[in-house]
Amino acid sequence: MNVTAIGRFQWVGISGAPMTQFLSIHAPIAKQNIGLGMNIVNDVIGSRNRTSIYADFAYSIRLNRNNHRLAFGVNGGVDIWQMNVGNMIINDPTDPTAVNFSKTVGNFGAGIYYYGQKHYVGFSVPRILENDLNNPAVAGSSRSARHFYLMGGYVFNLNSVIKFKPGTLIKITPNAPLTFDLNASFLFYEKIWVGAMYRFNESAGFNLSYTFADIFTIGYAFDFAYNDLRFNQFGSHEVMLQLDLRKKQKNYLSPRYFSYF
Fold it and tell me: Among the four 92, 128, 164, 255, which has the fewest Cβ within 10 Å?
């Protein structure tokens, strides 16, 4: 069983900047062919808050003797959207948007993932439905956009103590510019990750993590916007705590090459 908790504080120094808390719990069952899990996300931007609770199911197929696998995943759950105008300065109390607003919508997603001990390629659509999020008191239309993600990475053995892992994550959203992340991380002595990242037209940063006794990992990531926001904030900070629970007689891959960093 893997338990991961992440806290992200974006654009520190800007009032109302995004803050996100993430918790996931998942585990393989049925001789590692099936994985079950859940994740909870709380996302705050200004006066808007979204809490998401989703259950996850994955089924993997062994493709060859090297234990390369093809996994298919689906998820389903709810997004709870809230607008708290108590945190806003209201100049016109008759404005129809100056009311608290809450809406709960269901959604589901799907993905496919091909991986081995040292490589991975995946494609996913975490939210397939483009739900209407409009406040009934306000004319207009506000919808959640559908995002498509393409990812990949590989681990190279540089020598007996150092491994190198480049990776990328590409996000495609209709009617919006394509964006992507590039990551390059080094693993030292199977315990210490040190890496750098670049987000197209937005930010650059670094990340590091350390694993204790093969079961507990603590990590930190920092990125700084180099666009127009660079003069108004002190960067984005992210902390991670991860716990891997396993039976002593079971043989699992350690370290986990394809983690959140």
Answer: 92
